[in-house]
Design brief:
By secondary structure, this protein is mainly α. 90% of the residues lie in helices and 0% in strands. The relative contact order is 0.05.
Length: 70
Amino acid sequence: MKARLLLILVLLFAFPSVMDAQCAMCRAVVESEAEGGTAEGINNGIVYLMAVPYVLIAGLFYFIYRKMRG
């Protein structure tokens, strides 16, 4: 298990351009579109992805608060 994880990490660090390629592709699509619908969709997706961890952590703290209170 540890060897598999180490292999994955080595591959990720060995080929950083593969990981960066998706950002360049999204940027090219957004820049090529004149209407801006794709850009709005990408921005909404980013906001959604940012909001989910905060909601989960807030729920966790709420349940901990209720458990400690009573």
